[in-house]
Amino acid sequence: MEVAQETLTVPAKTETKEVSGSVALLDALIAEGTDTIFGYPGGAIMPIYDALYDYNDKLNHVLVRHEQGGIHAGQGYARTSGKVGVVFATSGPGATNLVTGLADAQIDSTPLVCITGQVFAHLLGTDAFQETDVINITTPVTKWNYQVTDANEIPEVIAKAFYIARSGRPGPVLIDITKNAQIQKFDCPAYTPCNHIRSYRPKPIVRKQYIEQAAELINQAKRPFVLWGQGVILGSAEQEFKAFIEKSGIPAAWTILGAGAIPTNHPLNVGMLGMHGNYGPNVLTNECDVLIAIGMRFDDRVTGRLDKYAKQAKVIHLDIDPAEIDKNVKTTVPVWGDCKETLPMLTALINEAKHTDWVSRFNDYTKQEVDAVIHNELNPTTPEMTMGEVIKLLNELTNGDAVIVSDVGQHQMVACRYANLNKTRSNVTSGGLGTMGFALPAAIGAKFGAQEREVVAIIGDGGFQMTLQELGTIMQTGVNVKIIILNNRFLGMVRQWQELFNERRYSFVDIQSPDFVKLADSYGIAGQSVDNRSNLQGALQEMLAHNGSYLLEVIVTKENNVFPMVPQGCSVAEIRLK
Amino acid sequence: MSTETIEKPEFNITVYTENQIGLLSRIAIIFTRRKINIDSLNVSPSEIDSIHRFNILINETEDTVRKLCRQIEKQVEVLKVYYHTNADIIWQEMALYKVSTDVIAEQVSVERLLRENGARAVVIRKDYTVFETTGHREETDALIKILQPYGLIEFVRSARVAIIKNSEGFNSKLREFERLEPGEDVIENEYLNKGQKVFTM
Questions:
Q1: Which one, of A425, A45, A403, A7, lies nearest residue A192 by Cα?
Q2: Residue B187 to residue A136, Cβ atoms within 8 A
């Protein structure tokens, strides 16, 4: 960075005003369109919080109860709003508490700008109070990070941070600002957003010949199959994607982060991919002749065993990140670029088609799956309730219009499998990292990112206990979040694996819980617990009708398993229905 | 563990970067995350002021090297990454050897040593002498073997520095990068058609 020298030697073109680094930071955030900050103060970030005191009318600061909660809230905000989530934390433990959220945002491509306070520059490396090497700790889990030690750097660094976080394949950026730079007064130039960094090219150039080759493959295909991921949503290419599959008539299946890009009930939406995905999409991956992957990264939970994955198919991969091409699955035609641009180019070149017989094969598999799994999960005859029937009732009561935020584990797979999603940006979950404790804070952020929408968090009894302190954030902000705890008194997914693969040796999965309703009550949050089917619908209705946050605990059957399942190390074609 | 041995030849990775604190670590962890050892690493200025050049040497399969290069090129401050086999580059390493002057004077003909190994004496003091050689690994290794019987006090070898045989340098590329809309020259997926000789994204 040579900002400091430039501002000293080159006469400024625009007017400058003398402000502190902290004020320059807040002005930069406002210039970037930030309205909400999730954060927690501490010694090394105090000058920024002091400046924030005068920005109450411009910036809504949400005081969380733990920095991990702050960053997950930032993620939830980014996922529903499509904007960059902004998070504040202090140095040392404040910053290290962000690491899980950074890793989560990095693997799930969530745009974040995290600001951490740091000790005075002259104390760096002295093991000062609350000093940690935040830059090196966060390097593997950030798209970019930078330490500011001079206030003159702040406007340009913040501009870069937002540009990098939101452009190309989005990701988390961390800016560490030493306390002296926060305090330092300098002549701050008018804010200039960043739109070019010479060493960074967020979008690969689209090459027409690859579009043409891809169109040719698609036009010749007899059994083409589309896999889509979050790239469609991140690129705001939902309409372009819909136009593409509707013209080509190609059945399409989603990764859990791609869920909702087109509505659940779209006739060409054939369901969920992966380990607990739908039967047809998994089996028929190994029967299609052309596989078209759009904005997805062939995660191992999607592909199962790679050397038996879609070996018969020609693969077309549309992705904005060149490093994803050929990373896991060898590509026949790479279509590098933003799918917002590439999809319409492709749609223009493909023939209108209807693959009626091929689509009906997916429907045949759906029937088998309904008979073997889905019917019993959604309409159980056992006295105990299933997770699936809760989701089914929720679908009916919300008409599929709610934002569903799920945690990690069995309930997550059930929520992703069965939730109806009518709108895009409706499924907020921790996909790549699988972070238990994600949902409660993410739901808070999701609501701030989409105030007009109903936000329902679906959480297991284990995951809820990892970040339940964020009930305090709900209490203090009055944010309206509906919380459903699907309580099976087990760490269910690990128990399922222990049952299936470890001869039912239930090693430390038997987890006890507090009285969740009393707990909510102590935070002034209404709630009830239901253990009887006859009360379920009424309880869900009460929850949705309640003016404000609500916690509903549903006691579900203890030892239910999520099926279908592709066991680890197996091919997608070896998916088990029981 | 598979008993099959996969051939992992030497690959030379050349990285053009901005001069940024922390970038070395950002690049190094791309290797360490995959438990790949870096055999040699050199960071130096390049032909262009302000642009730095990394020379990284690893033993890996070409498939892995290509993926590593893409991950490196993805870093914000990295401009360009190339990988080459040893045949595609001109390379040198430098080594220094410290031996006792007494031993050398008494037991070995210094002149013969220098002549036969292309070495030169950098320092000759009463107590020790420092020799230097420059060349390929075999050449710098050869002198170790010769000096070992006479009590090699200290030895150090530098990282490999390499020049790419068919490179025209980075000046024209950089001009493309500085434009908002880079031309076809820096096109990403050309490699797919080109038999993968030179990696260029």
A1: A7
A2: no
> ipTM for the complex?
0.92
Query: What is the CATH topology of the domain spanning A208-361?
Result: Rossmann fold (3.40.50)
Q: How far is A339 from chain B (nearest CA, A)?
A: 16
What is the domain partition of chain A in residue ranges?
3-189, 208-361, 383-555
- Measured in angstroms, the CA of A463 and the nearest CA of chain B are apart by 28
Q: How far apart are CA A464 and CA A523, in angstroms?
A: 15
Give residue A13's pLDDT: 55
Band (A162; pLDDT cuts 50, 70, 90): very high
pLDDT for A193-202, tens place per residue? Answer: 999 999 998 9
Q: Do domains A208-361 and A383-555 have the same CATH topology?
A: yes
Residues belonging to chain A with any Cβ–Cβ distance to chain B shorter than 8 Å = 135-136, 139-140, 143-147, 164, 195-201, 204-205, 207, 210, 321-323, 325-327, 334, 336
Specify the CATH superfamily of domain A383-555.
Thiamin diphosphate (ThDP)-binding fold, Pyr/PP domains (3.40.50.970)
Q: What is the CATH number of domain A3-189?
A: 3.40.50.970
CA atoms of A58 and A51, how far apart (whole Å):
12
3-state secondary structure of B196: coil
Per-residue model confidence as pLDDT tens digits over B153-182: 999 999 999 999 988 888 888 888 887 665
Chain A interface includes B29 (CB < 8 A): yes
